[in-house]
Structure formats: structure tokens, C-alpha cells
Amino acid sequence: MLRFDEIYDGKTVLVTGHTGFKGAWLTIWLRELGADVVGFSLPEPVSEPNMFDVCGLGERCVDVRGDVRDRAAVAAVVAEHDPDVIFHMAAQPIVLTGIAEPVETFEVNAQGTVHVLEAVRQVAATGSSKRRVVVSITTDKVYEDQNWPWGYRETDRLGGKDPYSASKAMAELSIHAYRRTYFRPEDLADHGVALASVRAGNVIGGGDLAPHRLVPDCIKALQAGVPIEVRNPASVRPWQHVMVPLSGYLELGRRMLGAEAAGFCEAWNFGPADEAGITVGQVADKLIEIWGGGTVTAGEPDTGGFETFLLRLAFDKAASKMDWRPGLDWVEALTETAAWFGALGVGDDMYDVTVRHLGRLTA
Ligand SMILES: NC(=O)c1ccc[n+]([C@@H]2O[C@H](COP(=O)([O-])OP(=O)(O)OC[C@H]3O[C@@H](n4cnc5c(N)ncnc54)[C@H](O)[C@@H]3O)[C@@H](O)[C@H]2O)c1
Nearest residue CA, atom 26 of ligand 1? Predict the structure, then answer.
């Protein structure tokens, strides 16, 4: 397992959105690195079943329930635990839900982020100037769509033509404003707060138990012995394992806890290395190969609303300044995902299974 120089050992780490797909993986990883994890998420589960429960995480972290739209609740959890590191992931993360529920999406994603930043400002103002690291998770969709074939860089213009994307770009702007106004990297020795944002695209992996996700749906079909229904075989998507961006977030956190932290208080892209993009049809065929049998049937085409193009992120900056690499390619990502669901199907201990999977990511 990548261990990040043991820097998280004994640290208090707040993960907002810890009951979600990425949050559950991060909670397990941080626990295995020796951190005391405090989670803050909505009371209700993200799906039924869900990875948080399947892995028994309620017993394995300080499990706080609340809403990031509730400024007092966010302030209270930050003040009570005064975390060394915050990974802010809690969000309304679905583009189509954002189109149906724009007000809630802006409130949760934009205002919720401001509540986290403000809670840190308050605690930093009253306490010691100990190092406090905040890594705020946005998305690859924060960039203004330029419809160009190369990857977006961190310096490209922000935009967002749907409420989800715009709400995350607004979160980016608030992070920038807090960093320039209150948490200036050049004054880090005085205020102690190291603040960065991270941008990554869609992830796959074991534990993604929400309905209507391509890879889990394929695996369910394979487990049931029925054909995989593929609606858009030519559609191109990035296919990165959830461990890939999480390793970037953790590496960034490690750097921001260290002596050179000021140089890392900015925005960072993390992404897969598969520049060409892989089609949905290729993914279904590869899963059948990995599973050792199965068939595909054509389903009703579905454009998926606004998500019709392949958005690429350039991660050159993370590669050169942090020596970060994706660690798994798309075939390894699918193999890991199929193995995780296979283990779930035979009733294995999914916490232990997930820990073993974390051990397979290489630097
Ligand atoms: N999954 C992806 O492919 C992907 C891609 C790009 C960016 N992201 C970003 O990564 C983060 C995690 O995504 P995920 O896929 O794990 O999402 P998820 O839906 O699985 O989990 C979302 C988490 O946020 C919490 N949450 C939602 N609204 C909240 C609120 N109002 N107050 C408190 N908690 C709230 C939920 O309880 C849950 O714990 C999000 O910020 C998302 O935008 C995800």
C-alpha cells in the first residue's frame, strides 16, 4: 500500500462525504495509514446497499451526520475535532440531478464549500497557528468547454454550462478567494492553513453500488448470467479506478503537511493515462474476458444528457511537481472492480478485501 511517508499516522482527518463512494475508499485508506478519521455526511445512505455499510465503516470512524448547508453544523464538527487535514468531498455529484435540482446543487456544492472554508477560518483564528490542510474536491467539469482535443490544464478558464459544473466552478472561485484573502501561501507561517483544490474525472471501482452505473451493471449481468445491455457502445469515457485520484489527493495532503507546503496551495488535476479514451463497447468486452464468459446485447441508446464528450485532464503538473502517476491503467481498473464485486458476491469481508485492493496500487 502507498503509505505517504506515514505522515497521516496519528493525524485527525475530517472527510466530508465519507459515506459516499470515494469517501468510503478514502476513509478506509486513511484508517490503514493510522489516521483518526472523522466523517461528516448526510444522515441517509447514498444508495442501498452502499460501500460504507458493506465495509462496516460506522464502527471504524467518528461518524458525524449533518448537512454542509447547515453552517453551524459544519462549524461545530470542525471546531470540536480541529482536524489536521480536511478532505472536503460532500457534494451533490450528479450532472443530471443538478439539472433537475439546480438550487439544491448550488447550495450544497458552492455554499457548502464556503461553509467548510469559513469553519476553518474561524478555528484558525482562535487556535494556534498549527498546520491545517484543506483539500477540496471539485471535478474535471469545472473547465469552460473549449471542445479541443487536448487535456485541460489547471490554468485554463473555469466555466460550467450545467448547474453541477457551474456549482463546482463556484466552489473553485470561493477557494481561490479564501486563499488570496485569508490563507495566502506566502503567509503560511502566520495563519497555518494550506488550501488546495483537486480536479478529477469519473471514477470506477468496487463499492460503487448506486444504480445505473455501467461497470456495476455489467458485473450484475455477468453474475446473473444474462447478457450485458450496452446502450452506447461507441461512447468514449475515461475509466480510472477510484484509487487513482485518491492517491493524488493523499500525496497532495502529504506535501501540504510538509515544509514545502506553500508551493502546493493551488489547483491540481489528476487523471488516467489512457489518452485515447476507451469505448463503452471495449469495456463490456474486456469485462467479459476478465469474467471468463458472458454476452452483450444492444440497448436503447441514451445520450446521458450533457455528458456526451470525452473530457481530458492534463496531469503534467502533478507528475512533475509531485512525481505522481496514475498507477493503474483501464484494464487493471476493470480487473480490480470485477474482483471486488466477485468477492462481495461470495460474502467475503469487504473491509479486508478493500484493504488488499489498496495494496495493489503502485507509485
Ligand atoms: N464519482 C465520480 O466519478 C466523481 C467524478 C468527479 C468528481 N467527483 C466528486 O467527488 C466527490 C465524491 O463523489 P462520490 O462519487 O463519492 O459521491 P457519492 O454520491 O457517492 O457521495 C456523496 C457524499 O456526499 C454526502 N453529501 C451529499 N450532500 C450532502 C450535504 N448536503 N451535506 C453533507 N453531506 C452531503 C453524501 O452523504 C455522501 O457521503 C464529490 O465532490 C464529487 O463531485 C466524483
Answer: 90
Q: Whose CA is nearest to atom 30 of ligand 1?
A: 67
Can you tell me which residue has the cell 478514502? 26
Indicate whether residue 203 lines ligand 1 (CB < 6 A): yes
Q: Report residues of the chain scoring pLDDT below 50.
A: 305-308
* pLDDT tens digits for range 161-190: 999 999 999 999 999 999 999 999 999 999
Q: Residue 138 Cα, ligand 1 centroid: separation in angstroms?
A: 10
CA-CA distance, 130 to 194, in Å (whole number)?
10
pTM for the complete prediction? 0.96
Sorted by where each begins, the domain ranges of the chain are 4-209+239-275+310-330
CB 108 near ligand 1, within 6 Å: yes
Q: Which tens digits make up the pLDDT trace of 242-265?
A: 999 999 999 999 999 999 999 999
Instruction: Report domain 4-209+239-275+310-330's class.
Output: alpha beta
Identify the pLDDT of residue 307.
Answer: 47
Distance 91 CA to ligand 1 centre (A): 4
**Residue 235 in contact with ligand 1 by CB distance below 6 A:** no
195: CB partners within 8 A, 6+ apart = 117, 120, 133, 134, 136, 175, 178, 179, 183, 265
Cβ–ligand 1 contact at 21 (below 6 Å): yes
Contact 319, 251 (CB under 8 A): no
Instruction: Mark out the alpha helices in the chain (DSSP H runs).
Output: 21-32, 51-54, 71-81, 95-100, 102-106, 112-126, 163-181, 188-191, 214-224, 243-257, 280-291, 316-322, 330-345, 350-358
